[in-house]
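ARCHIVE CARD
Drawer: 12
Card no.: 0347
Subject: one protein chain, sequence and derived structure
Cross-reference: see card 0346
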Amino acid sequence: MEFLKKSNVFKSIILILIFATISCSEEDKLETHNYGSIKGNVQLYDLNQNKVSNYDNLKIELIDSKNNTKLLSVDSNGNYQTDECEIGEITLTFTKPGFSGIKSIKRTCTKELLTIENIRLVEDVPFPYNIKSIEIKDGWYTYTGNIDPDITGDYMVTEFFFLGKDANVSCSNFNYYFVTGVDTAVSYINKTIKSSQTFTTEKLLENGFKYGDTVYITCYIISPMNQGALWDNINNKRLTIESFNFKNPSNTYSTILTN
């Protein structure tokens, strides 16, 4: 009789353990299926704005809301997709040796399909810009600068300025960025450029600056194809960009923000 009682107790313990295991397994399944889907496309261009079809060594990384990292595969047309993206804020990074542009963007993954397009990477511009002077005042941004007089080329470029409160300002460490919007032939910017652009000083105030602050500035020469990649045509708004990947920064220049 005592043996039967012990046997029944043992069976009860086994059943409890089995039930607990099944419950945990079901919870794991529910957690595992807390996924959304994302898809997008990457376009590659050379400096003459011709499409490049070689997607070898293009690396796309997805960092999900739990800080897990996974590599996404890319087809021969630059398309990528995953149906296993954890719900929440995500970061996507894009890198390919010899190409520059957007390095990382932040978006929010939900149960609905998230479509990300208009990611462009363009062949590196092989020379830096030299800032000679900059002044920010009364909503205007006035600058002069040039490139090495020995540089030649028959393609178009534009100046991309990054502004920060940190003296180590760069395309991955900035408070605000500003693209001149003027496409210039390389042969022209061999000469010193003096240009004034309409500049919204309020944007600096909204991004951590105040009047009297020292503004540190660096510039990169980029392809106009990079400039066009800053807009999300799918959602009709500016992309939320965390960092860029450009080569050959200019010297760092500083000026005082005045009203």
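Annotation on reverse: Residues 35-123 form a domain with the Immunoglobulin-like fold (CATH 2.60.40.10). The helical segments are 2-32, 201-206, 224-227.
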